[in-house]
Amino acid sequence: MAGSGDSFRALLRAANALLQHRRYHAALAVIKGFRNGAVYGAKIRAPHALVMTFLFKSGSLREKLQSIAQATYAHSRNLAYFVFTYKGLLAAQSRLQGKKIPFHSFLAACIGGWLVFGDNNPINSQIIMYLLSRILFGLARLAVEKGYIPQPKQDPFPLVAALVWGTVLWLFEYHRETLQPSLQASMTYLYEDSEVWHDLSDFLVYNKRTDSK
């Protein structure tokens, strides 16, 4: 028993020594990136899928739990694959050219995005739209920082908020099919289901009646 304990401690020391070796840092960073992508994807998707499934999806409890597990796995897997691909390509380019340049990041991410997120499905669509909104904000701030556009004299956020809400509600009312299904479901719950009720039960307690009254 003591021998097995000593062997385990020796193995642990060897592993820790390997992790401290700068020569293998790039390869180890790729592996940890895969790990962090998987964990982060699960943390982000699981609560979102839980809420959206129980709010808007019908079916048995087993079917709902299965849907949550599938969505969580898909998000976790894709993010893990992307981080692994991105960091691997980044390290390879840096090694080939002897230094790291900004274009390496762009090219590695483009390839990773094509390979991992190129399939047009609900999970990938949500991730891309999430990123797109932040990219637009980031590019606007960068344009101001670099002097390409003048610094606004007033905070432009109220105008952005007005245009975003005006546009999304116009699309929902008149071109609903252009919006993503989960957004359609949210909008329907907020703006259409609130127009229908029969008594106090489905006015305040429930959104819709489930009986045959």
From TrEMBL:
Q: Which InterPro entries match?
A: Pmp4
Q: At the top level of its lineage, which domain of life is listed?
A: Eukaryota
GO annotations of cellular component type: peroxisomal membrane
Q: Which Pfam families match?
A: Tim17 (PF02466)
PANTHER family to which the protein is assigned, alphabetical: PEROXISOMAL MEMBRANE PROTEIN 4 (PTHR15460:SF3)
**Name assigned to this protein:** PXMP4 protein
**What organism is the protein native to?**
Horornis vulcanius
